[in-house]
Amino acid sequence: MARRRMVLRRIDPFSVLKFGAVANLAIAAIGFVALLIVLRAVLGSGIVEEICAIASDVGFLECGVDQGGLTRTLAILAVVWAVVQTALLVLLAFLHNLIADLTGGIAVVMDVETPAGTSRGASGGAAGTADAVPPPVVARPGPAGPNDQTTTVEPVDAIEAVVQPRPTPRPKPEGGGGKLFGDRR
């Protein structure tokens, strides 16, 4: 297993729109149902009648809760919330793309495993040649390590990205290696 440093340079706004719309509608539906349950519990407990009795003692002529109107209002607020949140996510995706063009993106360190049955030099070409293409590797998140390698991930429409590993660097020569003040370790 090797550690790779990958850079997220671009987020597809249309993918964010699709994912955000579905996720925010699901969250809005869950919130709507939860608020309906709380509303039913409050109306069933008699708290509203007690508040209306106090209000009539003070001098109010009418008091009550329109349950149908309140349910419609909650449904409209849930849909508006989902639309606003989805628009905000798409705006943030555009903003990330603009900032990533200036700064280079977000670096992520991942542990990388080679698929079963493949090795680094078994891609059809001779091992160590410049035209040999290494086999693809599957990336997963992991902690940073001292031997991180940088790999650029291009935008994809797949859930799992397949990244080609970089060839391993050649070992440095022993015995001085051309350093001006000797070898410091």
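The record above closes out task 2.4. Task 2.5 opens with a second protein, given below.
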Amino acid sequence: MITPDDIKASALVGGFPSKLRVARVPLADPASYRALLHADEWHAASAYDGRRRQEHVAGQLAARIALEALVGEAAHHAVIARDRDGAPEVRGLPPLVSISHGRRFAVAVVGQVRALGIDLCEHEQSARVRRVAERFISAEENALAAADDWATLWALKEAAAKALRRGLLEGGLRASCVASLEPPRFAWPALEAVLARSDDDVVAVVYSP
């Protein structure tokens, strides 16, 4: 069973600018995480069942850990909630928050920035991602993933869509143009990107300072 001390000791992800904090939390029995959530966050989780509840609770916890790392004790009175458009928000404090999840982990980023998005994409999903992505991205972006780095391309595009607050049906994937994967860079200079890669997945954070 995962304990609160295990999570606090291992969840933070390094390598990001000081204005951002990123956390990664394993999907697990939601009850394992109850003690680390605000009472309002745990109550909101009751609206979900099964795996969806696992994803929701792990995402809330990742966001809370990242928020506490950024603002300290002030995070204790804030709540990670949902805005009217469904995007996560920090109620009670100014930082922005974004959450993503895969089959095994949830990740979250919190930052003192103007726009913010995060996405996690697993390398084992590359074939599926390629089939979907080719319908929504430009030929130039397709060419960037010629070395089968589809997970990175997709994570950058999804994180940018979240930062711009535009969903798939609102042209979210077409709203930004990736100019480079290494280093990660967008054609629109107002967006900056940072990547965290592992053997299993890639996490992209896109933000506007």
